[in-house]
Design brief:
about 270 residues, alpha/beta, Ubiquitin-like (UB roll), five-stranded mixed beta sheet
Length: about 270
């Protein structure tokens, strides 16, 4: 869509007549979590400074720009560099994964229709759970903020973090703040916000490294080459195995599978709500 300059309101607001610099702004859906309760789910006035971009305005209200996917000024979509004028009405929407908004000004080069993630050092268990569902989830225990952001940007990944300041880095264009502190709730939150349910492919990735799993047929040449790694007590009864194409780790359905199955069923139940 070609950029269009928003039409300014025909009448001057009371604030404008008094010479003050304000705009009216409203944030939608989960973006409200970044706001004080008095400003959530409603329009409110915000100060505007000369030459201030809409991106700077949004972040001055403590909302990270990477959480935003659509901005309307007086009903017309704009990009982050747009400079509002006093009296403008601004609507700010979060990342849309289940709604196609291709015919408006996108704030990122292309929509994230196949989401993949890079997670900060505090989200290790969430990384394993995302891998359990079949998503690419990169995680390093020794990542500092700069390494995490750089890796995410270079590999077109959504950076997941509980550090709001990290999401305000200018170089970052894909990121999400994780609100919950419980790993299972974090998984449910990400699946809900990005509408990931139709993309879930359980047990298709290695929980340790995130590499893709391939079925290892019992009795095949490939199986015989790695069967020495399987405990005798397991190989006596188990006939279904998977091999990680990344780290070479073997997987079979042991006693831990009950908890993993429970998490998968939890996400499947959420998809029906």
């Amino acid at each position: 869509m070609r950029f269009r300059k928003p039409t300014r309101p025909s009448g001057r607001s009371e604030d404008s007549r008094r010479g003050s610099y304000t705009v009216t702004i409203r944030f939608y859906e989960e973006l409200n979590y970044f706001l004080p309760e008095s400003k959530q789910k409603q329009s409110f006035e915000a100060p505007l400074y000369p030459g201030q971009s809409v991106k700077d305005l949004i972040e001055s209200l403590n909302v990270p720009h990477v959480e935003v996917d659509l901005i309307l000024v007086n009903g017309v979509s704009v990009d982050f560099s747009f400079q509002p004028s006093p009296g403008d009405y601004i609507s700010v929407y979060p990342v849309f994964e289940s709604l196609n908004i291709e015919n408006v000004t996108r704030l990122r080069p292309f929509p994230l229709r196949t989401p993949a993630f890079a997670l900060d050092v505090h989200l290790g268990k969430l990384a394993r759970y995302l891998r359990l569902l079949g998503f690419r989830a990169e995680y390093r225990k020794n990542w500092d903020d700069a390494d995490l952001v750089s890796y995410g940007v270079d590999n077109l990944l959504i950076v997941l973090t509980r550090d709001r300041g990290l999401l305000k880095r200018k170089v970052l264009d894909r990121g999400m703040f994780v609100f919950s502190t419980d790993p299972e709730e974090q998984l449910r939150e990400i699946c809900r916000r990005l509408d990931l349910y139709s993309l879930v492919r359980p047990y298709s990735r290695c929980l340790s490294c995130g590499g893709k799993l391939t079925v290892l047929e019992y009795g095949s040449v490939e199986f015989d080459s790695v069967k020495d790694k399987i405990p005798p007590g397991v190989i006596s009864w188990c006939r279904e195995y998977s091999l990680c194409t990344g780290c070479g780790k073997l997987f079979w359905k042991g006693s831990h599978i009950r908890n993993l199955d429970r998490i998968i069923r939890l996400i499947q139940a959420d998809s029906l709500l």
